[in-house]
Design brief:
Shape: globular
Structural class: alpha+beta
Organism: Aquaticitalea lipolytica
Number of helices: 9
Helix content: 25-40%
InterPro entries: ATP-NAD_kinase_N (IPR017438), Diacylglycerol/lipid_kinase (IPR005218), Diacylglycerol_kinase_cat_dom (IPR001206), Lipid_Phosphate_FormReg (IPR050187), NAD/diacylglycerol_kinase_sf (IPR016064), YegS/DAGK_C (IPR045540)
CATH topology of the largest domain: Tumour Suppressor Smad4
Radius of gyration: 19 Å
Distance between the termini: 17 Å
Largest sheet: 10 strands, mixed
GO molecular function: ATP binding; kinase activity; metal ion binding
Keywords: ATP-binding, Kinase, Lipid biosynthesis, Lipid metabolism, Magnesium, Metal-binding, Nucleotide-binding, Phospholipid biosynthesis, Phospholipid metabolism, Transferase
Cofactor: Mg(2+)
């Protein structure tokens, strides 16, 4: 049966090293072939993406398609979460992946194939997942939302390096990891999870909702996208040699069993950096700043086609 709803399609032309722009004619033709009634927009940058989503919601759109990677989807979600016209769980998002890592779709088993991804959207089945909200303490910045994984420390540093090498595809994350080994310095942190306070020299702190990040890495233990809890990993003072020895464990998920990695489940986490060295913070593979953060969960606030 043909879809008769009106859709708003957001295309990031720079996703996947320009793949978004190159693939759009094929995607547009397929959407028309499958009788989607849609408007579309090419985003200029992340703020532009958020603004156009807010504008479209204000115009009455409730069904969106994100053409891009994890960063594009992240910006779409932030546009949805930062508007107050309609409940966020009533706005549905389909994904046509053309990005570098495409990590979020791995958890939800959405195929990389464009036509198969469109067929999933056309089926019209939606599900809900939790959303994380990050507040930068002592900052006037608005909250940042994420639906995959956020982190502070080494993973943020890797993200800062990946931008230069996105033409390598998923290998960019592995390259960024190896490159970061030579210059990243572990930092002092004080993390509060429930009634527990963890003070340590730290490699990175990860707050996860989905299973994969960084081009397929598995850095949290038992993530569940809709249980109302974050899956948290604190990697303490792991040295460079130890990271090199454990690179494969970053991808097969066994890194969470390392003796210097502690895991937790909670719906809130506070992270204070007690070091002059302030590490990068990333959310869904996008850099969002530096400093102390408060992270809380918003249960089942994001609706997606699967």
């Amino acid at each position: 049966m043909a879809i008769i709803n009106t859709w708003f399609v957001v295309i990031n032309p720079t996703s996947g090293n320009g793949l978004g722009k190159r693939k759009w004619p094929k995607i547009e033709a397929l959407l028309k072939q499958h009788q989607f009634n849609f408007d579309h927009y090419f985003t200029k940058d992340e703020n532009d993406c958020k603004k156009i989503i807010q504008f479209a919601v204000n115009q009455g759109f409730k069904n969106f398609i994100s053409v891009g990677g994890d960063g594009t989807l992240h910006n779409v979600v932030n546009g949805i979460m930062s508007q107050n016209i309609i409940a966020t769980n009533l706005i549905n998002v389909g994904v046509i992946p053309v990005g570098t890592g495409n990590d979020w779709i791995k958890t939800h088993k959405i195929p990389n194939n464009i036509e198969k991804a469109i067929n999933i959207i056309k089926k019209g089945q939606t599900s809900l997942q939790d959303v994380g909200e990050i507040k930068l303490v002592k900052s006037n910045k608005k909250p940042v939302y994420f639906i995959n994984l956020a982190g502070i420390g080494f993973d943020g540093y890797v993200v800062s390096k990946v931008y230069k090498y996105k033409h390598l595809g998923a290998l960019a994350y592995l390259y960024g990891t190896l490159l970061g080994l030579f210059s990243f310095k572990n930092f002092l942190s004080k993390t509060t999870i429930g009634s527990e306070v963890i003070e340590a020299k730290t490699l990175m702190i990860l707050v996860g909702l989905c299973q994969y990040s960084g081009g397929g890495m598995q850095l949290t233990k038992t993530p569940n996208t809709s249980d109302g809890l974050f899956d948290i990993s604190i990697a303490k003072n792991i040295g460079k040699l130890d990271i090199i020895k454990n690179v494969l464990r970053l991808f097969n998920g066994s890194i969470v069993n390392h003796k210097k990695v502690s895991t937790y489940k909670n719906d809130m986490i506070n992270i204070e950096i007690t070091d002059n060295h302030k590490p990068y913070i990333q959310a869904d593979g996008e850099l969002i700043g530096k400093g102390d953060i408060e992270v809380k969960i918003i249960p089942k606030a994001f609706s997606y086609y699967y």
